[in-house]
Each structure stands twice: as C-alpha cells, then as structure tokens.
Design brief:
171 residues; mainly beta; 2 domains; eleven-stranded antiparallel β-sheet; two-stranded antiparallel sheet; 2 helices; 13 strands
Amino acid sequence: MRCLLIALLVILCAGPHFAMAAPDASPEDMVEQNGLIHKAGEAAPFTGMVRDYHQSGKPRLEARYEAGKLVSSTVWYASGQKAEEVSVASDAWTIRRFGETGRLEQETVAHFKDGHKVSEQTKRWDESGMLRTEAGFEKGKLQGELREYSPAGQLLRDEVYDQGVLVKKLK
C-alpha cells in the first residue's frame, strides 16, 4: 500500500505533462471520422503517436497527430533504413522518399486548399544522386517549368507549361 501511495505521489508531482501524455497507438486502433483521425471508440480527434513495427521488431511507421491531423510521419524499410518522411505545415505537405540504401529519390511539396491538392512541385534523383527531373503540377496537369537533366547533370529539356499545354520550349 505504501509503494502504491509513493508511486501515485511521484506521478502527481511530475506535473501535467507526465499525467496527460497520450499513449502510443497502432494503425489498427485508428479510424477516420469527418476527415480527422480518431482512436476507435473515442469522440475526440486523436493527438499522439501512431507506431507500427516490422516482424523483426524494428520500426515500420511512426506518425504524429495533433487534433486528428497528421503533423509528421516516417516509414522505414524492414532493414531499418528510412523509406519515407512526411512533414505537414499548414496546407503544405513535404514528402521525401528514399531508396533502400538511404539515398533521396524524390521530394514533393504539395499544396492543399479546403482538403484538396491544388499544386505540387516534384524533384527526382537517379541512383548516383544526380537531379534528373523537376516539374510542377496544378490540378493534375503540368504547370510551370519542366526540366530534365542528363546523368552528368546537363540540362536536356527545359519547357514551360500552362494547365498541361506547352507554352514555351527553352531547350
């Protein structure tokens, strides 16, 4: 009884951060309601970490939510190498995808309005780490400059698009 009382006293003295910390959840615990993520059976939108693991015990997914909205996430390959990271700031999502060796393969910055993607900028790199393409999209169509580079880094193609229509060929 005395140990239980001491443990309770330690928890209360640790302050509100310890007492209010949300426990981790697994993806299977989560449900979507009206565009927000909730822990199954709970009315309030979820705030906390969602974690999942490979069979080996290594992390597979770690996602942080605030008030039911994704703030950031990281996905790992079974080897433990990072596969993808996402960060969300207001209505912009930055998504970075990595190869199994850890090399950055693609980076996309997507902009949203009222929950719908309105535009994105994407860059892709090849196996040697050289930038190969840069492109912008709006409503699913090429928008702005499209650039393609050779494996040596030389500009091969430089074009400007407006709603998917080529308007200027610079190279």
